Structures are given as C-alpha cells and as structure tokens.
UniProtKB/TrEMBL annotation:
GO molecular function: ATP binding
Keyword Lyase annotated: no
Superkingdom of origin organism: Bacteria
Protein family (similarity comment): Belongs to the ABC transporter superfamily.
Source species: Aquibium pacificus
Protein name listed in UniProt: ABC transporter ATP-binding protein
Length: 270
C-alpha cells in the first residue's frame, strides 16, 4: 500500500540526466549515465547504491548545485535551472551555523524571506517541536549531539516549507540507534507535512522503512538498476524492521545491491 496521501501527479521529473567529470591528467569518469525518474506528489523515494555510484551527483543536479551534461530537471512539468524555491536540501555534512542557537538557525530562512519577527519565531518553533528539539531551542550547536545538530538542519530546511525535500545521507554520521529513532521521526514528519521526499542513502533498512519506492543504482556508470515498490503498511515505526515482509524486501534489494557493491569494491580496488 502506497501512502494514502500520495496522489498521481508527478511533481519532480529527472529526465535523461547524465554527468561526466574530467579528472586530473585528462581521464574522464561518468558519474551518472542517462537517468530518468518521475516522483509523484507526496511520495517518499529513496535512492540507494554503492559508494561512488553517482548518488550525490544526482542530488546536486536536482538541487541546482551542479549542471548536468544532458537531460533536464522539471518541477510540475516545467524545466528548472539552478536552485528552486520548491526544493529544500538537507546535506550529508553538518550545515548548521555554529554562532546561532537552534531557534536562530531555524528562523534564518524566514528572516531572509522577510517574515515578521513574531511570526517567524512561532513558525520556527513549530518545526523545532516537529523534529523533537523543544527545550533545546536556545542552545548553540556546540552544546548539542550530532543527531540534534542534524535535526536542527532538518528543521531549518523544513521552515522554508519546500514542496520537495531532498536529503543526501543526512544521518550517515550518526550511530545506529540514533539513526533508527530519527527514522521514526522522519516518518512522523513526512506524514504530517505530506512532502514529496527524495532521500539519498546507502542504508538499506532506512530506505525500506521510509519509502514508497526504493531506487537501486548501479555502480559506475551510475544509473537506475531497479525500482522496488514497498508495499508495507504505514505508519512504519522502527519495529517493522523485524517483521517477515520487511526482511523479504531486505533480501530482495540486497541481492541487487550486493552485485553493484561488489563491482564497486573490485573496480575501486578496496
Ligand atoms: N567534482 C568531481 N570531480 C571529479 N570526479 C568527481 C567529482 N564529484 C564526483 N566525482 C566522481 O563521480 C563519481 C560519483 O560520485 P558521487 O559523489 O556522486 O557518488 P556517491 O554515490 O554519492 O558516493 P558516496 O556514497 O561515497 O557519497 C565518483 O567516482 C566520484 O569520484
């Protein structure tokens, strides 16, 4: 069963996007071969693949931080170039401003948008609460754990209320328990905001727990190898991970992923 809120309208289209990088010495690497994917309004899609398969390249192209060699990114059927107000990004590395408190970080996009002080505080507090940081709003990032800092970054992106949320391995640096609990939080937030979400990850459990569809990428040149529709009932808390249907998805997707990860290890001589 897909999320009940998901409609059939395509909101984000990745149409024949590819990217090649020129390395020092003249060699070239195809980071992304022609990749096409449509994401529907309210859908949660994860992109999973071995290290170096082009996940971040795809993320950066969608977010407008990198130009593709071929293809187009479309929102509501219209081509976009560069960053777009409807797309919010949460990055792999910590991206909070250390000199600002939690609330100071979360109000920033609202400040930039010219939202009056009282309103921006109220709106920001809503997102602070949503990510579970109530009581910590006056702390500075140095007084928080890594997971709390990532949740601050998430709240800041959410505060600008983008229709499409892009996340590039936002929990990669966190320990397993924190990851799972944040996974629960993401499910809750996604249900509340019904935001179209694209998550880049190399964590299979996380991808299955959160997604309507899991997109498996091949190792170099990176492109879509398989798309798996996850038909697990929602809401899905981390408890679902030990269920039999969950483990079947895990086994099925892991087969494809293992092939690509093995190829990656051999080709990059790990
Ligand atoms: N700016 C760049 N210049 C040259 N090569 C690059 C550049 N950015 C990425 N690459 C190469 O493109 C390929 C894909 O990189 P990318 O970071 O998109 O992979 P990834 O799947 O996100 O990897 P990881 O899971 O390790 O973050 C890799 O071989 C990488 O070395």
């Amino acid at each position: 069963m897909t999320a009940p809120e998901a409609s059939l309208l395509v909101v984000l289209s990745i149409a024949g996007v590819s990217k090649e990088f020129q390395l020092k010495g003249g060699a070239k690497v195809t980071a992304l071969a022609s990749t096409t994917l449509d994401i529907k309004e309210g859908e949660f899609v994860s992109v999973i693949g071995p290290s170096g398969c082009g996940k971040s390249t795809l993320f950066n192209i969608i977010g407008g931080l990198l130009e593709s060699d071929t293809g187009r990114i479309l929102v509501d059927g219209r081509e976009i170039r560069g960053s777009h107000k409807d797309i919010g990004m949460v990055f792999q590395e910590e991206s909070v401003f250390p000199w600002r408190t939690v609330i100071g970080n979360v109000t920033l996009p609202l400040e930039i948008a010219g939202v009056p002080k009282k309103e921006r505080y109220e709106r920001a507090m809503h997102f602070v609460e949503l990510v579970g940081l109530t009581g910590f709003e006056n702390r500075r990032p140095s007084e928080l754990s890594g997971g709390m800092r990532q949740r601050t970054a998430l709240a800041r992106t959410l505060a600008s209320e983008p229709r499409i949320l892009l996340m590039d391995e936002p929990f990669a640096a966190l320990d397993e328990q924190t990851r799972m609990l944040i996974g629960d939080k993401i499910v809750q937030i996604w249900r509340e905001l019904n935001q179209t979400t694209l998550l880049i990850t190399h964590n299979l459990t996380e991808a299955i727990q959160l997604s309507d569809r899991v997109v498996v990428m091949s190792y170099r040149p990176g492109t879509i190898k398989q798309i798996v529709q996850i038909e697990l009932p929602r809401p899905r808390t981390s408890e679902i991970i030990s269920s039999e249907p969950f483990r079947r998805y895990l086994g099925q997707i892991w087969q494809d992923l293992r092939e690509e990860a093995t190829r990656g290890m051999i080709e990059s001589k790990i």
